[in-house]
Amino acid sequence: MFYLTYVPGPPLSEFVDYFWLFNGGQAPRKERIVPSGTSELVINLRADEIRIHHPAHSKHRRLSGAVLSGPYSSILVVNAMQHESMMGVHFKPGGAFPFLGAPASELTDAHADLAELWGRSANKLRERLCEAVGPRDRFQIMEQVLLDRLRRSPKGRRAIATALDAFGLYGTGASVRDVAREVGICQRRFTKVFAAQVGLTPKVFCRILRFQRARTLADQIEKPNWAQLASTCGYFDQSHLINDFQEFSGFSPTEYLRRLRKHQHDGRLKSNHVPLHG
Known about the structure:
Blueprint: E1 2-6, E2 16-23, E3 30-33, E4 40-44, E5 50-53, E6 61-63, E7 66-69, E8 76-79, E9 85-91, H1 97-100, E10 111-113, H2 114-118, H3 120-131, H4 135-151, H5 158-167, H6 176-183, H7 187-198, H8 202-219, H9 226-232, H10 238-249, H11 253-262, E11 273-276
């Protein structure tokens, strides 16, 4: 089993956090994915399908082997048996927008076959990646395809880039009102533009960033003081932190941490995956 990552250089580095490649990670279990505020391009290099289960629905959704996942504001579940060989692109917040050909808000809490967005070129990309020999070739193919699409994409991310900087890495920077004033548009218009490019409203996006920081810090502390952690991460009080854990992970903070540590040596596909039994 191996998990490799590759960070592209400019200009893709403005939009892409990293590429990843996973091989031999299948496990007889389900994994719960918690929201990260970002979009993900995922390609199954073994089977031409990806199955996603949203807890709000009773059935799994079966998609093609090349899928674009929009930013989620709630949990979703995947079967880890399909992780035999997969590749993906982890975009930065708002980074997927130039490659979509549609508003990011149309993919909020949703997955789409890449062919619905890219047409036949999506199938050609998957075929090339499946036929490629070795991680380096696959990363190079993906990098070139994204560069070609970026050259043809519309410009105009300055306002959103300014907003993301103002909100900060943990969503505890400037208020939505102040950011709207800084970019020079009314708050209502700003919220609409932000959702169109990032896929989430500014308020939900900042809440997810705070939650992500809280869960990451909690995992680094043997016995977290949840009240102190809530204060460190910008929560009004401990109850607000607990509410966000329940909403974004489906677990209380204590139960989330217990499950994470119980399976810490099992091998997770990514850091925002929580292994489940059955």
